[in-house]
Every structure is written in C-alpha cells, then in structure tokens.
Design a protein that fits this description.
Strand order of the largest sheet of chain B: 1-2
Distance between the termini of chain A: 49 Å
Number of helices of chain B: 11
Distance between the termini of chain B: 49 Å
Order of helices and strands of chain A: EEEHEEHEHHHEHEHEEHHHH
CATH architecture of the largest domain in chain A: 3-Layer(aba) Sandwich
Largest sheet of chain B: 2 strands, antiparallel
Number of domains of chain B: 2
Structural class of chain B: mainly alpha
Shape of chain A: globular
Chains: A alpha/beta (283), B mainly alpha (268), C alpha/beta (288)
Strand content of chain A: 15-25%
Number of helices of chain A: 11
Strand order of the largest sheet of chain A: 6-7-8-3-9-10
Largest interface: A-C, 35 and 39 residues
CATH class of the largest domain in chain A: Alpha Beta
Number of strands of chain B: 2
Oligomer: heterotrimer
Chain lengths: 283, 268, 288
C-alpha cells in the first residue's frame, strides 16, 4: 500500500462520471504522485486527463474510489480548502484565470481568500513573483502581458499559497513556443529547487519527455505508463492512442524498421547523434 | 473601433489628490456634488468652479481633460436645459411666442440645472481620473461594508466590478477579432437600414456571448481552485488608511460647503 | 491570381503615446498555387500582414494589390476581394454562431448573394473538403460538436466562399496530435487537388518544413527571409537568434556535421536525414 508520507497524491480505483453522462470520464484509475516527482499525464482530447486533474484539486468529487491529497480525502467537505492549498492548479486559458486587474493583486487572491495577514501576503507575493521572474511586472495590468507571462502570473498565484503539488491542466496548450518554454522552465525549476511535485497534463510530447514519469490516458483508463523512455519506445502503441512520439524517437523507429541497429529509446537530438557515431564506428 | 473607447479614464500620477484615500475621495465627491446642488446663484457656481479648478491644479491633470469628459453628455445637458425652459412655471416673462412664454425663472432654472449636471460630471471625473479602478472598487467595498449587516452584498458587488474591469479589455479584443472574422466571410456591419444593421450584429453577438459564458465558467472554476469562498474572513493585500492628506481634503471641502451655505444666505 | 505587396507600412495607434510600427516596408508577391509558410515569433507582424491580404486592415502607406485591384482604392469591391482571399483566423471555432452546421457554413456564400442551389452545392462541397459527413452533421448544432469538428466547420465556412487564396493563422493551435494531423492533411489536399494558394502562419517549424514550398520569416515587422525551406532552414543560427526553432532534422544535421560527418547543406526533412544516416551506416567506420 502506498504510504501518504511518500506520496503527494494517491488515487485508488478512481472513477468520475459527469452528471447525465452515460459513461465514466475517468474509469478506475489507480496511481500516485511521489514527493518531488515531475509527472506528465498524456492523452488525446477527451481521454479523461483533464477530468483527472480536476479530481486532484477537489474541484470534482469522485463518483467511485478515493483521492488523497497529502493524506487528505477529497470527499471530505471540510478539507476542501486545505486540499486546494496543498494542490494548486493552473488552467489552460491564460485569459480566463486571472481575477484581478493588477498582477500583484491577482497573486494575492488565494491568500486573501484564506485570510492571510496583509503583511504576510506582501512577503509571499514578492517571493512568488520573484520565483517566476515576474517581479518587474507586479504593478502591470494582466492584459498587457504575453500568454507565457500570464501563465507565470497564474503559477505565482498558486505558488504564493505554498503548495506541495502544482497541477498544470494543459497550461501550455494555448501558448507559442517561447511561452511554452517559459512555463516549462519555470515549473522545472520549482520542481528541482523547491522540491514541489509537478503534474503536467499535456499533449505535447516534447514536454512529457522531460518528466520523470509518464501516464498515458485513453477512454478514462491508464493505457500506458512508465518513464518517458519506456513509454515512447512503444511507438506504434502511442500512435494508436492518438498521440505523437518525439521526432527523434520516430526517426530511430524508422531506422530500426530499415534494419539499422539503433537504440529504440532515443528521445533527443543529442542521443541520436551518439547513436549515429556508434553506428559509423561499430561496423 | 478599439481605440475609440477610453477605458476607466484613470490618469496615473502621484499628486496629493492621487494619494488620498479612495474612501475619502468618494465621500468628498458626494459632499461636493451635494454642495453644488445647494448653490442657486452665479457667485456660488463661480466658487464651485474655483474649488474644482484648485483640486484639478493640485492633481496635475489638464483642465481640458475634464471639459472633454462633459462632451459626450452635451445632448443630455441640452435636453434638460430645454425641458426646464418649457416646463418651469414662472412669473416674470421675458418674451412670448404663441403658446410659449419664456420666463426669467425658467431661464434661471434651466441654466442652473445644466450647470449642476456639468459640475456633477466634472466632479466625478476628478474622482475617476485620480483614482485607479482597483482603488475605487476597494474604497466602495469598504464604504459599503457596514451595510453587509443588512445583507447588502458589498463584497459581491465589488468583486463583480473587479471582474468586469478585468475582462473589458479581453472582450473588446475578442469583439474586434470576431468582427473581422465575420467580415472575412463577407459580413457587412456598416451599410443598410437600422433593421439590417441590427440583424448584422447577430453573427457578432452570438459568438461573443458564447465566449463570455465559457470565460465565466472557466473563471469560476479557477477562483474555486484558489480557495474563493465569498467575502467572509477574507483579508486584503492593501489596507486603506486615512492620512493627513485626507484630513486636509475633508477640511477644504467642509470650508467650501460652509462658504456656499453662508453665501447662499447672504445673497439668496 | 496573384497578390502583390509594395512598400507596405503599418503603424498602430498613430500619434498616440503607444504608437508602434507593426509592418515596415514589406515587399512580397504571392504567386498562384504557392504553399507559403509564414513564420516569426509572436508580435513579429505576421497577423497584421495577413489581415492586409483581404483588406481587413488598410496600409498606413504602400499598396496591396489582389488580382490587380488596389485594396485602398475606394472603388474596389472589398467583398469581391474577401471572396478571393479567404482568411481563417486563429481559433476560428470562436466565430461560429448559427443554429446548425449547414447554416453557419452558408453564411459566407449568402453574403455573396448566391442563389440557394449554389449555396447548397458549396456547403456540401466545403464539408466534403474538411471531411465532415454532410448527411450526418448538417443539421447538428455547432455547439454540440467536438473541438476538432468545430474548427473544421469554421474552415469550411471560409472554403464555401471558394477563395483562390486561403490564408490560415495557426490552424492547428490548441489541437491534439490527431486533430493537427487531420487539419494539416486537409490543407495539403486542398493545395494539391484544388490548386488553392495557401499561406499558413505557423509556430511549428516541423509542420512548415513538411508542407510549404516557400518560407517567409518575419521579425520586428520586416520580412527578413524569403525562400525555399531548404534555403531558409539552412540559416539555423539566424532563426534561433530571432527566437525561432528549427526543424529537428536541421538540428540533427548540424550536430552531425560538427562531429565530422559529411551531411549535405540544406537538409530539413526527417526522411532526408534518415537517408543520410543510412548512407553513413552503409559506409561503416570510415568517419570514426
């Protein structure tokens, strides 16, 4: 049995059906998010991955099964606000999750809701904005920012609440490549330096490839899981699930199909370079 | 079309007026307007104008800015002027034309009413020009806070104002985009009679509403995820404190009211 | 039919404190039947440029000629221009408004004043081109469809204008891999089968590399590169200097060259680099 002190989130036989929906959007999922882990949940649209994320934050309550967030059962009404403080959530559309008309006021929003003292709010805002490199935008209006900057403000708002887990529900889907890089670099840094567990929901393979562990959802169930290397090596299975593999993994797959002896679990350009070097010297 | 709409006409600055507590500014604006409505002779209006001019000078805003603010309301002001001219019963006719007789009282009334409106607009403009929307909602929420005891939704109103302010630029941008997208499909928003034009708005309004609902939905969920649970036990980042500036402001306004009342008694 | 752009300048909010130059001396000719990939980071002027192509924005100075018609000319029929140059905005599903799929797609043709039979033909044709089943979907509400289907309805709505040039602003934004593939597939088919000229704005260098036959790069409101994908992607350093990615194949080719392998310049497709690697493998250890 998974112990709560080693795991930030534990889901056990978790199911959720939307009201009036015939079938479960999430269907019997058992999984966990370890302390300090960077987890990616992949899946095509409608695979249940976003629903799963919302179960981790007590935005949805399980139809069946249980989710514990830092040992707290999300079905318990009295724990809802504790849970949301432990597991912060960043959403998809940068325009639809910023509440206030000034950046720092927005970062303060969650703290104000939780009745934190104004002096303490000030300190935490400054820390959070510094952690996402947005200090100099503290007094700006959100609509003047780029998409990546808006998402970093949203991350700061979550960070100010000192969470144990940050869940990014397709938070890079609407960004351009530089915005995506900004967000990914930020959460990776928070993961490494602050030890905050990160769950990213995404359909960008490049992002999933940087995670410690990958879960692929399909039809509400876990279809595949493992390290990025283990998962992406199964090129055909991943494709059948409506997803891509990183281009270099795809290239390795094609080369192997042509009878060349390259590793199947190549993920990056550098790894492919090494493989080519090995090929040219070994024969 | 975007640039034609000036939003929350806040004029950033660091003057004494800017730094006053928004609550005090709100109260003093109301007091000033009440004062202006008590005035009923020309010297009184000159005094009101002088006071306003002084405040505007301190704030560092150009007076022409205030005048510009009155412009959009010129028709309403003209309308009340004419209305007063026709309907106020007076005893001292100036001239008559058929059924219509212009009296001195009516003319006086018309002029004063128009002037009151002008001062009403200019007075509130000083408030909105020197107070950011955030401070304004903050001030309003806190002024209305005692009313919460009588189940007046002060916090909710302030939150709604904040969200509206936050989303106005977003929705304006969206309107512009949808309009262009429909124009790319040959839509015409500019020609035709009133009915045709109203009908042409449907392809713009439906997507805009759909989008606004989706945004509302998203925002509600995001607020919930950040522990939003209404106004109870909520703290605020910024605390409002009255300073010496506010005392000065209050005294100055009180002096203005006193003079207006005295002067009214002496001359009126 | 061609689009000619001469010395195009565009300034936002002229005279105000926020005056910004969005386009600066752009000169381009878009020829019949081309597939152009338009790239550049956010704010480089791409979106402003494409809105000039059908007269949604008018130049501050310079000219845009569509099929010889000057868009700034008072006498030019804007609707005729917008019929010839179809523009699909980013997230086009946000513009859907009609009760049914069929009515929404018919909006454009109706605005052109066509008769019912022709409108009907065009709706069916457009739905076929975006791989939506007319019989099954034409009476459905647009708001009941999946995200990918909604986007295809929106594209069909522009295709029903039967434009000769189709401009798409990031047609795949926000879609999952399957959705992307579907959209890219139908754009490719449109170009190949119907001969439609395509201008595709994209952030994905790999998509541009696999589809376009001409790549235009914008930076700070200027056209900084314009050529075949082979020529443009050969300038990997410059592209990265502008905050742009390069296709993975270009990256790999560059790194292999650094290691002393003899990879020809101008490689930008995965299939090409695969061939090169196979050559290396066949030659054996000569390079090691």
């Amino acid at each position: 049995m998974a112990k709560p002190e080693e795991n930030r989130i534990i889901a056990s036989s978790l199911s959720y059906a939307y009201p009036d929906a015939g079938k479960n959007a999430v269907d019997g999922v058992t999984m966990r998010v370890r302390n300090g882990e960077f987890l990616a949940i992949l899946g095509h649209n409608g695979s249940g991955k976003s629903t799963l994320a919302k179960l981790f934050n007590a935005l949805y309550v399980p139809t069946n099964g249980t989710v514990w967030v830092c040992g707290l059962d999300t079905r318990d009404d009295d724990l809802v606000f504790d849970i949301r403080q432990h597991a912060g959530m960043v959403f998809q559309n940068p325009d639809n999750q910023i509440v206030a008309t000034v950046v720092e006021e927005d970062v303060a929003f969650g703290l104000e809701n939780n009745g934190v003292e104004p002096k303490e709010i000030r300190v935490r805002i400054d820390e959070a904005l510094a952690a996402v490199n947005m200090t100099k935008y503290a007094k700006k209006a959100p609509h003047m920012l780029s998409g990546g900057q808006k998402q970093r403000v949203a991350i700061a708002g979550v960070l100010a609440m000192k969470p144990d887990v940050i869940i990014l529900d397709e938070s890079t889907a609407m960004l351009d490549p530089s915005g995506r890089a900004e967000v990914m670099n930020t959460v990776h840094r928070l993961n490494k330096e602050e030890g905050i567990s990160v769950v990213i929901i995404t359909h960008y393979m490049g992002e999933a490839a940087t995670a410690d562990y990958v879960i692929v959802m399909d039809e509400g169930k876990i279809a595949l899981s493992g390290t990025p290397r283990e998962v992406f090596t199964k090129v055909d299975t991943v494709r059948a699930l409506g997803l891509d593999v990183p281009p270099m993994t795809d290239l390795a797959h094609m080369l192997r199909a042509d009878g060349l002896d390259v590793r199947a679990d190549v993920l990056t350009v550098d790894e492919m370079v090494e493989e080519v070097c090995r090929l040219s010297s070994s024969i | 079309m975007l640039k034609d709409i000036t939003l929350g006409q806040y004029f950033p600055g660091d003057s004494a007026i800017h730094r006053m507590d928004p609550r005090m500014k709100l109260i003093l604006t109301i007091v000033y307007i009440v004062g202006v409505f008590m005035v009923s002779n020309l010297p009184g209006y000159l005094l009101a104008l002088a006071f306003l001019y002084l405040v505007v000078r301190i704030s560092g805003i150009k007076f022409s800015y205030l005048v510009k603010g009155v412009k959009p309301l010129r028709f309403i002001i003209l309308f009340t002027f004419v209305l007063n001219l026709f309907f106020v019963q007076g005893e001292t006719p100036i001239f008559s034309l058929g059924f219509f007789t212009l009296t001195k009282e009516a003319l006086n009334n018309a002029i004063f009413f128009a002037l009151r409106l002008v001062f009403l607009v200019m007075g509130t403009s000083v408030l909105t020009l020197t107070t950011s929307p955030v401070q304004l909602t903050d001030g309003l929420e806190r002024l209305m806070h005692p009313l919460q005891r009588f189940h007046f939704p002060a916090h909710e109103l302030a939150m709604m104002m904040t969200i509206a302010l936050r989303f106005i630029p977003t929705l304006l941008e969206e309107t512009d985009k949808i309009q262009k997208a429909q124009m790319a499909r040959g839509a015409d928003f500019e020609s035709g009679n009133l009915l045709a034009r109203a009908k042409a708005m449907i392809p713009l309004l439906v997507p805009l509403f759909v989008s606004a609902f989706r945004r509302a939905n998203d925002l509600a969920m995001a607020m919930e995820a950040r522990c939003y649970r209404g106004g109870d036990h909520r703290t605020r980042l910024r605390e409002l404190r009255y300073t010496r500036l506010d005392v000065f402001g209050a005294l100055a306004t009180a002096a203005f009211i006193a003079v207006v009342m005295l002067e009214g008694r002496l001359l009126g | 039919m061609s689009i000619v752009i001469e010395h195009l300048n565009y300034v936002y909010m002229t005279g105000g404190p926020y005056e910004t130059k969005a386009l600066s001396d752009v000169n381009l000719t878009i020829h019949d039947g081309e597939f152009i990939g338009l790239i550049g980071h956010t704010g480089s002027g791409k979106s402003t440029l494409v809105q000039h192509l059908n007269g949604l924005i008018m130049p501050t100075s310079g000219r845009v000629l569509v099929d010889g018609m000057d868009l700034a000319d008072k006498g030019t029929d804007r609707r005729a221009v917008r019929q010839r140059v179809g523009l699909v905005f980013q997230y086009p599903e946000n513009q859907l408004f009609e009760e049914t799929v069929e009515k929404d797609i018919a909006f454009g043709p109706k605005n052109l004043g066509l008769d019912d039979a022709e409108i009907d033909r065009r709706v069916k044709d457009a739905m076929r081109r975006v791989a939506l089943d007319y019989d099954r979907l034409h009476e459905r509400s647009v708001f009941e469809l999946s995200g990918g289907q909604m986007r295809r309805v929106a594209i069909a709505g522009v295709l029903a204008m039967e434009p000769q040039v189709l401009v798409l602003d990031e047609p795949c934004a926000g879609l999952d891999p399957r959705g992307r593939e579907e959209i890219l597939g139908l754009i490719k088919k449109l170009h190949e089968e119907a001969g439609t000229t395509i201008v595709m704005v994209s952030h994905s260098m790999d998509d541009v590399a696999s589809l376009a036959d001409r790549v235009i790069v914008m930076n700070h409101g200027e056209v900084v590169m314009d050529g075949t994908p082979r020529d443009v992607f050969a300038c990997g350093e410059e592209l990265r200097g502008m905050g742009l990615d390069v296709p993975q194949a270009v990256l790999l080719a560059g790194k292999l060259r650094e290691r002393g392998f003899d990879i020809p310049e101008g490689i930008y497709r995965i299939e090409e680099i695969k061939t090169e690697i196979e050559k290396i493998a066949a030659k054996g250890g000569r390079h090691a």
